[in-house]
Design a protein that fits this description.
heterodimer, A: mainly alpha, two-stranded antiparallel ribbon, 21 helices, 1% strand, disordered N terminus, B: 7 helices, Family with sequence similarity 114 member A2 (chain A), DUF719 (chain A), phosphoprotein (chain A), protein transport (chain B), GTP-binding (chain B)
Chain lengths: 528, 212
């Protein structure tokens, strides 16, 4: 569920995105749709947003599995527009999502979008996303809804005296987020025309959730920033040479490094660079290695296919088609995502271990479990309100807070980077074991389905963690100004979205590996 | 954090010769007598300084087991340096060097710098391969040679750093095309962005050598 303090804004963006991608309609149509949705929202919000009881800062950013839109010509026309039953559509969207198929062929465009999001992060941290969005908005000619600005003002006023009740806090932060999200949705509306072509092409993609909107903003924003930034253009130039995700990521990370070195920056920036942390956790290396295996497997599959003919070829084609399908359809169990309680990760580790077992290869969830425990330990370090009241013996001028919002932000980013790096590592190890051992207990198709399941488990956890961290941020940041807190919260969501993308992309890299594994097995079982 | 160059290394050799231990000693300065078998490849990274320049070593520590060979071979490509390791207390690991070398040469770029390492030099009493034999093998095949001990850390730093020095020299000589990343060398970020605002301050600390 997208739990969100002010659902009018958030859901606007969520639905909007959903419709946008499902129908792939031209911009004008869509904008009308958005209006409709926003109106309709108020009536059905109860059924969709199941309660206010949860912390209102909660947003589910990453639960949806999807691929980034690619600039490919549309393979076919999309489903015919369904204008009826918005609510129905939405609920459908929340239970069933899919990723676009394949698409590994076009590394270039794919990487570009990645780079821009990665670099957008730099901008986020460096300049404050709200500022950046403003810039993007102006340049796109999008007026910020007046309703929104009132909200923001209200929120800033409300900053002053929180009567310490939990509800108040929650409300306040909800507004912060709500307005942030509102801004996003309004911006993405204006971007539609430019995005629609990209969106039309992702036939099966269901984009939903505010985070996707956020991601788009990030990309768009980067373009705006790039105009006055020769350094960025330089990076773009480098891009053309690179052909793999890890390279692109590496370059994005290096830019981060460089910016950190160049600017005299705040503590936050030095500590909380997602890309650098991701690399430190060896995420990039594992990704690079996984890419190598994936690429070689892909070549192997191609060469095998080229040697076959007749019935053999048809059979193999069908088999591979089935395998492909399990890489493009992922179902999300909605109810489980909405768990506000964050434990030490025991459930996560157990679920992961149990799922991994179904692969029947020797691999363990140990390292991921450790990463998850580390995340929990960091969450615990962030004082909740109850704890703050007891801890009044702290040294800073803000007497009740022992952990600054920057610290909390840093914990969040570190945790996301670590969990993501370990996820990539897990997939890399799975790929190695798949190529190494021939499994008899289970078919390649079944393994593919298990891997899809694992992907969901991982993305869900990213979502849960980001929710928890942002809730903490909102709680300890009630006395912070919006321009301090908002970019930090947005930053966490942005990186959570990126994390989920990397995990899903790594999952996609496993497809050729599974295919090779399948081919090996069939070759062994039917010796010619 | 920022570096002038990044070198990709691979560590290869029979299982149990101490590849992972060498890496751990180099990156973490510690020795772990019992080590899990490496699956596929594991990673380590460390920054070193050569000629006043920060160089990041990105090390791919491969599995030695025969059954992983076809997988690990995939990782050779794009390495600038290789540590080919044998165990001085196990003659068979020395005997297999030729196969390893052929493999490495076949699956990597021809300029790759290879350092031959006779590990476990602390176990002098159990030595089966004389130092001279290692030296001779290295000479014959154009490798650098060193005996090390991951346990006592003897020569470990040197092994990694001397390899980097050799690569660095090759760069200076123009042997390596640093703009071709298939060579396992990447130019660091501050090189790549000479045109952007290099406002002294922190950036100045590790201003990299000129390229481009």
């Amino acid at each position: 569920m997208f739990l969100e303090g002010s659902p009018e804004h958030k859901s606007g963006s969520a639905r909007y995105c959903y419709k946008m991608s499902e129908n792939g309609r031209p911009a004008a149509d869509l904008q009308e749709n958005v209006k409709d949705n926003t109106l309709k929202e108020e009536t059905d919000s109860d059924s969709f947003y199941d309660a206010q009881s949860d912390s209102s800062a909660d947003v589910a950013p990453t639960r949806k599995t999807r691929k980034r839109p690619e600039n490919k010509p549309p393979p076919e026309l999309l489903e015919s527009p369904k204008s009826a039953g918005v609510a129905e559509n939405v609920s459908k969207a929340s239970t069933q999502t899919s990723v676009s198929e394949g698409g590994w062929g076009s590394w270039g465009s794919w990487g570009k979008s990645l780079l821009s999001t990665a670099t957008a992060t730099v901008a986020t941290v460096g300049q404050g996303l709200s500022q950046v969005i403003e810039k993007a908005e102006t340049s796109l000619g999008i007026p910020s809804p007046s309703e929104l600005s009132t909200q923001v003002e209200k929120e800033q006023e409300a900053d002053a005296p929180p009567s310490s009740s939990e509800e108040n806090t929650a409300e306040g932060s909800g507004t912060v987020l709500g307005s942030a999200m509102g801004m996003l949705s309004s911006s993405s509306m204006g971007m539609l025309s430019s995005l629609s072509s990209a969106v039309q092409n992702t036939s099966k993609t269901v984009i939903s959730g505010g985070l996707d909107a956020l991601e788009f903003i990030g990309k768009k924003t980067m373009d705006v920033i790039a105009e006055g930034d020769p350094g960025f253009k330089k990076t773009k130039g480098l891009m053309n040479r690179s052909s793999t995700l890890s390279q692109v990521l590496r370059e994005a990370k290096e830019r981060e490094q460089q910016q950190t070195a160049e600017k005299v920056t705040s503590e936050t920036e030095k500590k909380a660079h997602y890309g650098m942390l991701f690399d430190e956790f060896q995420g990039l290396s594992h990704l690079e290695a996984l890419e190598i295996l994936s690429r070689e497997s892909e070549a192997k599959v191609k060469s095998v296919l080229s040697t076959l003919s007749g019935e053999e070829l048809t059979t193999l084609r069908d088999d591979l088609e089935q395998i492909k399908e399990s890489f493009s359809l992922m179902e999300f169990d909605d109810e489980e995502v909405d768990d506000p309680q964050v434990d030490d990760g025991e459930n996560f580790t157990k679920e992961l271990t149990d799922t991994l077992k179904k692969l029947h290869i020797s691999t363990s969830a140990e390292r991921l479990g450790k990463a998850r425990r580390n995340a929990f330990e960091r969450i615990v370090k962030i004082p909740t309100e109850a704890k703050q009241q007891q801890d009044e013996s702290s040294e800073q001028e803000a007497p009740v807070i022992t952990c600054t919002v920057e610290d909390a932000h840093c914990y969040a980013i570190t945790s996301l980077a670590e969990l993501t790096a370990r996820s990539i590592e897990q997939f890399h190890k799975v790929a190695e074991m798949l190529l190494h051992t021939s499994v008899e207990e289970v078919t390649a198709l079944e393994q593919a389905k298990v891997l899809a399941q694992i992907t969901i488990v991982l993305c869900k956890e990213i979502s849960v963690l980001s929710k928890k961290f942002t809730a903490c941020l909102a709680t300890i940041g009630t006395n912070e100004k919006g321009e301090v807190l908002n970019p930090l919260i947005t930053g966490v969501f942005l990186e959570a979205s990126n994390s989920a993308s990397y995990i899903q992309d790594a999952f996609q890299l496993l497809m050729p590996v599974i295919e090779v594994s399948h081919i090996q097995r069939t070759a062994e079982s039917s010796p010619r | 954090m920022a570096y002038a160059y990044l070198f990709k290394y691979i560590i290869i050799g029979d299982t149990g010769v101490g590849k992972s231990c060498l890496l751990l000693q180099f990156t973490d300065k510690r020795f772990q007598p019992v080590h899990d078998l490496t699956i596929g490849v594991e990673f380590g990274a460390r920054m070193i300084t050569i000629d006043g320049k920060q160089i990041k070593l990105q090390i791919w520590d491969t599995a030695g087991q025969e059954s992983f060979r076809s997988i690990t071979r995939s990782y050779y490509r794009g390495a600038a340096g290789a540590l080919l390791v044998y165990d001085i207390t196990r003659r068979d690991t020395f005997n297999h060097l030729t196969t390893w070398l052929e493999d490495a040469r076949q699956h990597s770029n021809s300029n790759m710098v290879i350092m031959l390492i006779g590990n476990k030099s602390d176990l002098e009493s159990r030595r089966e391969v004389k130092k001279e034999e290692g030296e001779a093998f290295a000479r014959e095949h154009g490798l650098i040679f060193m005996e090390t001990s991951a346990k006592t850390a003897s020569n470990v730093e040197e092994a990694f750093i001397n390899t980097a020095k050799e690569i660095y020299e090759k760069i200076q000589e123009g042997v390596f095309d640093i703009n071709n990343e298939a060579n396992g060398i990447k130019i660091g970020p501050q090189h790549a962005a000479t045109n952007s605002t290099l406002a002294g301050g922190q950036g100045g600390q590790q201003a990299g050598g000129g390229c481009c």
